Amino acid sequence: MSDDSHVIGAAWPVLINFKEYNGVNLVDIRKHYKDKEGEIRPTRKGISLTESQFSSLVDVLASEKDTIKSLYSENKSFIDLQRTHSEFVKFTIENSEVRFEKIHDQSVFSETEDGVLVLNSSIPWVAELEKEDSKTIERVVSFIRCFSKSISLFDDSEGPVRDILDTVTYNLFNYLKRL
């Protein structure tokens, strides 16, 4: 069986490989990421399908072609995204209770079961934020809640997601230093 890879996407590629394992031919579909050297590395997220499983998948995709097209329709997605964003911003403003306290790990924040955002005051820029006026704190808390919601949409915190987290934390710290 061929070991050729078919790559879908660039930043977070999905590789499709045709492999043989223990005498069974498989179609392996797996998420990958690019490491700092630009090498493509596999994640644990993926699936290997036998011939009958792959055949069943192809049948389902063919029979649900219209449903799949409507799922990925640009207009529907954009409208849903706008509605979700508006609802989330409203929720964020209405539920912006925040506490500053020391968290024993290096997390910037955590959220309690009742929705209170707890900021880690042992982190220097968070300690500085605590001294700011309520309007500044409200803006930063809204940003953190929105950022947290956005990050939760990703499967893991490796590769590009880790880079985004590091960059945002660095830029937020520099912003607070200017206040």
Spans where pLDDT lies below 50 across 5 or more residues: none
Strand elements, count = 7
Helix-residue proportion: 40-55%
Strand line-up of the largest beta sheet: 1-2-3-4
- What is the straight-line distance between the termini? 61 Å
Overall mean pLDDT stands at: 76
SSE succession: EEEEHHHEEEHHH
Over the alpha carbons, how many angstroms does the gyration radius reach? Answer: 22 Å
Brief summary of the model shown:
By secondary structure, the chain is an alpha+beta fold. It has helices spanning about 50-65, 65-70, 75-95, 125-130, 135-150, 160-179; strands at about 5-10, 15-20, 25-35, 40-50, 100, 110, 115-120. The mean pLDDT is about 75.
How would you describe the overall organization of this protein?
It is a single chain. By secondary structure, the chain is an alpha+beta fold. The protein has two domains: 5-67, Transcriptional Coactivator Pc4, Chain A (Transcriptional Co-activator pc4, Chain A); 73-178, no CATH class. Helices cover 47% and strands 25% of the residues. It has six helices and seven strands; from the N terminus they run E-E-E-E-H-H-H-E-E-E-H-H-H. It has helices at 51-63, 65-71, 74-94, 124-129, 134-151, 160-178; strands at 5-8, 14-21, 24-34, 40-49, 98-101, 109-111, 117-120. A hairpin with a 5-residue loop joins strand 6 and strand 7. The radius of gyration is 22 Å and the shape is elongated.
Topology:
Blueprint: E1 5-8, E2 14-21, E3 24-34, E4 40-49, H1 51-63, H2 65-71, H3 74-94, E5 98-101, E6 109-111, E7 117-120, H4 124-129, H5 134-151, H6 160-178
